[in-house]
Amino acid sequence: MVMDYKRGGTDAQQYVWGGAIPLQIHLHDSEVTTLPPPPPALILAPRLGYLPLLVPQIKPFFSSSLPPGVDTVWFEYRGLPLKWYIPTGALFDLLCAEPERPWNLTIHFRGYPGNMLPPCEGEDSVKWSFINALKEAAYIINGNCKNIMNMSQSDQAELWRSVLNGQLEAYLRVSSKLKLDIVGDDFAFKLNSTTSHSRQSTTDLDTTGTIRTGRIPVRLYIRTIDEDIDGLEDAPIVDSWEKISYINRPVEVHNEGKCFTLYDAIKTLLPELFKDEPSVDSNTCEAEVKGGQNSNEGSSKSTEERGEAQTERAGLPSDSAEIKLIRIQGIEPQLEIPFGWVVNNLMNPEYYLHICIYVKVLEPITI
Amino acid sequence: MSHKSWDGTLSSTEFYVAACAFAKQWRKFNPSLPQWSWVTCPKRPWISHDNQVGYLSVENVILPRLSEEADQKGDIIEKEECVSEYEDEVVDTAVVVHNGGPGVHRYDFHAVYSASYRVPVLYFRAYCDGKLTLYSCLQLMLYFATLYGQPLLLDEIEKDIPVHSAELLIKSKWTFMTQEEHPELNRPWYTLHPCGTSEWMKLLLSTDASAAQSGIPVEKYMISWFSVVGQVFGLKLPFEILNLVGADTIVLLVSVNYGFVTFLVVCIWHLNISLTFADRY
């Protein structure tokens, strides 16, 4: 992560850490024992957080209505049990083709689907899952998990607390001790050398916007759409996790001096979807980066428009599938943006970059 | 892979080769046991159409019923003899092996490649009377935790090795079972955490004399790997299969298969040496 805890992180990091999804949580019908039924709970869910962590806030809305028994909490969206170990923002980006605000979820306190989801005992389970992911990311970046294993108890507690409470500054302070450097310090420093409202000069970014050779932790969620749709709002709902392909594979970066872009990263993970593509001209990298910077600070709508244009260009149909959408932290970044910038600014606190990709499949796939 | 610089990991292609080799070796030496087979993942447009994307699977492995008396030292020898009989044999010892009647615990084991750790990872599930049972997994974990797991090991080891190494053992979490989503099957399976795997694989295979000439033999990888992870379940490879990996590795593997405590002491001893000479290993 960027070692700039004095300023509290880059603009983009602050946006991401401050990002939240409004949720409207309904108690499942089978668990309503009072008349009238309790109204839904309205809460803001941090993008970088996890649904089980919200239970203490949600439960008071429903506790008087629950049937007797032990709580085994789980969430569901339109019939799909939600995987609690996927960050809330990634779930939203993946399952809501057209962002739904508020996002209507159903909560259950009974009948945990143990054949589908690993058990979750509240905050401890989420914390364990988070630390595990962090270890895996550390192994990918450094070749070993020593930095995580050797964390002092107080550092670990502070790290978790900063994630729990969405405190970027505190997080950067502790995480800098982990020495998980993906981009060189040079790049990070130059990116933060100006105040939040001035424009970055492209000369700062172009020569140093290179990512170190190595491996970058990435989690890819591919949602297949096998119908012809006009717009995202027509996308069929995900009624089974079989419709989502999960790829937990690091991006291998070989720094050859050329700018390694987001496009390059996705191409290395899913080469089969880019078979007909000529390689991207790296000279476009510099000019597009400035555009990318601006769009991030501007409205999300213009970003989406630009993002769509880029996606269309990149996702030329291979024989059987084409990319319709690439979404990271709720935005569709231009594919020419240096991958180092994307990782540095849009990654989750466990050092993973979560990327949602919608793929239109031209042939039906058998599940 | 060059011998000296090998870090205990392998690529996904090497894993495929190693897995196929292991399945063949197993068939040759354990023809009466359930066999390993490669399961190819369903075709997806973003995956290249080759058979290498998949995992190694063995199903319906019957482990012996675990009785309370078996944790006494005298019974352990007998138990070791009968755990290698998986099916259709009843052995008259203190631990009774069921040959498929009701109440038998059957296990599925999958070896799935982890692109993050670059090693195979073991996933497993248990069934009783055809129904998926998490309870028998927990029973198994509990039983082996007391026999082979950290609490007992720490007691024994702490007496003999320096305090620093005991701390290392606690921190490194050698045997570590959790429940996680199976990477390919969208269901929760039990798994052994992979984060120590490359280290003990490096240890096991780096001592192989033939490796000095031709690099680490991928064909021996899975035998060594399974020797260790199978140990957690009391699954021991017959001596004949261990013969394939060569004389030096055998010393370590024998200790793995017939004395997990010995194995760990050896590992810790090796690691101690590495730590004094290098900043990282």
From TrEMBL, chain A:
<protein>
    <recommendedName>
        <fullName>Autophagy protein 5</fullName>
    </recommendedName>
</protein>
<comment type="similarity">
    <text>Belongs to the ATG5 family.</text>
</comment>
<dbReference type="Pfam" id="PF20638">
    <property type="entry name" value="ATG5_UblA"/>
</dbReference>
<keyword id="KW-0963">Cytoplasm</keyword>
<dbReference type="InterPro" id="IPR048939">
    <property type="entry name" value="ATG5_UblA"/>
</dbReference>
<keyword id="KW-0813">Transport</keyword>
<comment type="subunit">
    <text>Conjugated with ATG12.</text>
</comment>
<feature type="compositionally biased region" description="Basic and acidic residues">
    <location>
        <begin position="302"/>
        <end position="311"/>
    </location>
</feature>
<dbReference type="Pfam" id="PF20637">
    <property type="entry name" value="ATG5_HBR"/>
</dbReference>
<keyword id="KW-0072">Autophagy</keyword>
<feature type="domain" description="Autophagy protein ATG5 alpha-helical bundle region">
    <location>
        <begin position="123"/>
        <end position="179"/>
    </location>
</feature>
<feature type="compositionally biased region" description="Polar residues">
    <location>
        <begin position="292"/>
        <end position="301"/>
    </location>
</feature>
<feature type="domain" description="Autophagy protein ATG5 UblB">
    <location>
        <begin position="215"/>
        <end position="357"/>
    </location>
</feature>
<keyword id="KW-1017">Isopeptide bond</keyword>
<dbReference type="InterPro" id="IPR007239">
    <property type="entry name" value="Atg5"/>
</dbReference>
<dbReference type="InterPro" id="IPR042526">
    <property type="entry name" value="Atg5_HR"/>
</dbReference>
<dbReference type="Pfam" id="PF04106">
    <property type="entry name" value="ATG5_UblB"/>
</dbReference>
<dbReference type="InterPro" id="IPR042527">
    <property type="entry name" value="Atg5_UblA_dom_sf"/>
</dbReference>
<dbReference type="InterPro" id="IPR048940">
    <property type="entry name" value="ATG5_HBR"/>
</dbReference>
<comment type="function">
    <text>Required for autophagy.</text>
</comment>
<feature type="region of interest" description="Disordered">
    <location>
        <begin position="281"/>
        <end position="316"/>
    </location>
</feature>
<keyword id="KW-0832">Ubl conjugation</keyword>
From TrEMBL, chain B:
<protein>
    <recommendedName>
        <fullName>Ubiquitin-like-conjugating enzyme ATG10</fullName>
    </recommendedName>
</protein>
<keyword id="KW-0472">Membrane</keyword>
<keyword id="KW-0833">Ubl conjugation pathway</keyword>
<comment type="similarity">
    <text>Belongs to the ATG10 family.</text>
</comment>
<dbReference type="Pfam" id="PF03987">
    <property type="entry name" value="Autophagy_act_C"/>
</dbReference>
<keyword id="KW-0072">Autophagy</keyword>
<keyword id="KW-0808">Transferase</keyword>
<keyword id="KW-0812">Transmembrane</keyword>
<feature type="transmembrane region" description="Helical">
    <location>
        <begin position="251"/>
        <end position="271"/>
    </location>
</feature>
<dbReference type="InterPro" id="IPR007135">
    <property type="entry name" value="Atg3/Atg10"/>
</dbReference>
<keyword id="KW-1133">Transmembrane helix</keyword>
